[in-house]
Design goal:
Layout lengths: L1 H15 L9 H18 L5 H25 L12 H24 L1
Helix pairs in contact: 1-2, 1-4, 2-3, 3-4
Length: 110
């Protein structure tokens, strides 16, 4: 689900946002989508669950950093409702939840 949300938000924001500052970039988005898919596949294999949790933890952390940077780069626009910074802020929160889930999975692996 995390990879679908990352890809969907990037497509939606990329197509609807006119200002190039704070727009999603291709390489970080593909890293988030591909990395979380790889992590999910590794979690399905009993022998690789630990590795899958580590990969997912790393990808969620990187994406959280990407969204914080996008939040900082996005300019305030009073005409944009609910706000130009809403999508990066929400995606940072979702990345935090994914980070916590993968971290809990890693902890359960010990």
């Amino acid at each position: 689900m995390f990879s679908a949300v990352v890809g969907g938000e990037a497509a939606f924001t990329g197509l609807t946002k006119a200002n190039p500052q704070g727009k999603p970039e291709l390489i970080p988005t593909l890293t988030g989508v591909g990395g979380s898919l790889i992590a999910a596949l590794l979690l399905q294999v009993d022998a690789a669950q630990f590795v899958g949790a580590i990969v997912g933890l790393g990808v969620a952390g990187v994406m959280m950093g990407v969204y914080v940077k996008r939040f900082q780069d996005t300019e305030f626009d009073p005409l944009d409702w609910p706000g130009a910074k809403t999508w990066p802020a929400v995606m940072c929160l979702i990345s935090f939840f994914a980070l916590a889930a993968f971290g809990q999975g890693l902890r359960a692996g010990f």
